[in-house]
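Long-time lurker, first post.

We've been arguing in lab meeting about whether uracil would sit comfortably in this protein at all. Half the group thinks yes, half thinks no, and nobody has a model to point at. So I'm putting the question to the forum: if I give you the sequence and the SMILES, can you give me back a predicted structure of the complex? Inputs are below. Any interpretation is welcome too.
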Amino acid sequence: MSEEGITTLNGTMMNGNIELTNGRAHKEGANGFIHIKNPHISNMDEDVLYHFALGTKSHDLKKMFGDVKFVCIGGSPRRMERFAHFLVKELGYNVPSGLALENITNATDRYAMYKVGPVLSVSHGMGVPSVSIMLHEIIKMMFHAGCTDVEFFRIGTSGGLGLKPGTVVVTSEAVDGQGKASQDNLVLGKVVSRPSVLDKDLAERLLQCSMNDDFEVIMGKTMCTDDFYEGQGRLDGAFCDYNEDEKMAYLQDCHNRGVRNIEMESVCFGSMCHHAGIKCAVVCVTLLDRLQGDQVSTPHDVLDSWSQRPMTIVARHIKNRMKTL
Ligand SMILES: O=P(O)(O)O[C@H]1O[C@H](CO)[C@@H](O)[C@H]1O
Ligand SMILES: O=c1cc[nH]c(=O)[nH]1
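Top reply:
Settle the argument with this. Predicted structure of the protein with uracil, as tokens:
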């Protein structure tokens, strides 16, 4: 029996919940460990991470992922593959000639995952349901692998508010469409609300990674919505029951409250990482100024080059951090 409660093989009984920390008892809030707040996991014969086509029996997760210190996620599989290639160059890794970077989850096409040294680059699809499934499985994967002191980053795209398109926003706080910094989830038919908390120090460090670039990096609140069209006050969806004045009043009010960009995963990301004791940050480029319009009409090659900007910032941070590991 420990001070905190009953020490089990994989965790500690705290207030009726087992807080798993991969074999080590810990005090609530202790740094470093991934918290799996689920008493059932330790009783399972095997944990199958279905959407990654990985599992605790079929794969040696510790060997595959035990050294991971940075998890970078973004919506598109192609972007996250590009980020992995970018990291190979930036971190000076060698991919033997003739060999490609392997998509670790290629037995399924739900998500794509690449590993470059201590960095994982993983796609999450669009919206909260998709990112939440991915985060459940990656958090468990990090836990099974025994990873410690892991930082998570969302590298994404967004609509800006009052910013020059192409500007990068490091999120100070993620809020929903009503301005709440918490994620509501229906669990057994009841609303379970968990705070969404991003790491302030990490956000500051990322802001400082801005150098003499040809784009601006600013800090601001990010609004996370459950829909790209009506949820973000667009006038160009298949349906719309409000007029332009009402749309502009809403977006202007968001801007007045400090919101500088709009996307679709940050609140859930901040809530799940915080619940697991993981430091996290959100860095998104803005593709348009929503105070000027709704359609994303910039040519795709330009959008592609802008989508590299958050990668540049996060890669600089990773390089800095790797010097201290
Ligand atoms: O560029 P990603 O990371 O996919 O993020 C943004 O783009 C998608 C909408 O086009 C949403 O998922 C939104 O959050
Ligand atoms: O306007 C935008 C652009 C990218 N992603 C969003 O969610 N909204």
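For your lab meeting: Confidence is low (pLDDT under 50) at residues 1-18, 23-29. Helices lie at 61-65, 77-91, 128-144, 200-208, 244-256, 266-275, 300-322. Whichever side wins, do check it experimentally.
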